[in-house]
Structure formats: structure tokens, C-alpha cells
Write a structure and sequence with these properties.
Mean pLDDT: 92
Low-confidence stretches: none
Shape: globular
Helix content: 25-40%
CATH topology: 2,3-Dihydroxybiphenyl 1,2-Dioxygenase, domain 1
Distance between the termini: 23 Å
Structural class: alpha+beta
Number of domains: 1
Number of helices: 3
Radius of gyration: 16 Å
Length: 124
């Protein structure tokens, strides 16, 4: 049994939210939900989502690395078990913080092929 439960969300930085939303709608037929603040939009894909992010929240990301994926979120049943598995493998698991009803552990991108990876559970 895997200690990770499912892919929750993939975050994508974009400099033009309207254009990115149009691309996902036109090219893939996805229904896009744009947030009230118009700084992000979501695309539901099965039980996961793609979050398109624009504006100030991703300006530094775009300036340093360009547009595209900037975070991968995975859900686990038990974050303590994930941290233990990392330690048992000789890897640094990262600090666990609580936020918005979840416990979140950021994984060093060097351990995930340079992808910022966040693993969480809902035990906050």
C-alpha cells in the first residue's frame, strides 16, 4: 500500500490568466472556474485539479523560471508515516506546518527532480 493517496493539485504560473484559461477550454474542452479575485482559475481533472495562477502571487516565479508548473500537491492519509518513510530512506522530510485544515510538508525540490512538491494530510 502506498503512503501517498492521490494527486491533489498541480499549480501552473501564467502571465495571462484569460489566455491560459482559453487554451485549456479550447484545446482540451475543460470547464474553467475563475476565482472571484481573478488571480487564479481551476480546472477539475478527475479527482484532482490544475490551478492556473497569475498576478502578484506568481510574479517572482515567472521572473525567475518562466511560466509553467511550479508546484505539485500530493495527499497522504498520514503525514507522519510519510515523514518516517523519508527518514527511513535517509532523506530529509521537511518541516510539517498546519494551514487551512491541513498539515503540509514541503519537500526539497532536489528530491523530486527539481519540482516543488508538497505533501499534506487533513489531520490539522
Amino acid at each position: 500500500m502506498s503512503i501517498l493517496k492521490r494527486l491533489d493539485r498541480l499549480d501552473v504560473a501564467t502571465s495571462d490568466l484569460a489566455d491560459a484559461a482559453r487554451i485549456y477550454e479550447d484545446n482540451f474542452g475543460f470547464k474553467i472556474t475563475i476565482a472571484a479575485d481573478r488571480a487564479s482559475a481551476t480546472v477539475k481533472v478527475g479527482g484532482a485539479e490544475i490551478r492556473l495562477a497569475a498576478g502578484d502571487s506568481v510574479a517572482a516565479q515567472i521572473a525567475s523560471g518562466g511560466e509553467g508548473m511550479f508546484a505539485l500537491w500530493l495527499e497522504a492519509d498520514d503525514l507522519d508515516a510519510v515523514a518516517a518513510a523519508f527518514r527511513n530512506a535517509g532523506l530529509e522530510s521537511g518541516v510539517i506546518r498546519s494551514e487551512n485544515g491541513r498539515r503540509i510538508m514541503a519537500i526539497d525540490p532536489k528530491l523530486a527532480n527539481q519540482v516543488p512538491l508538497f505533501i499534506f494530510d487533513r489531520k490539522a
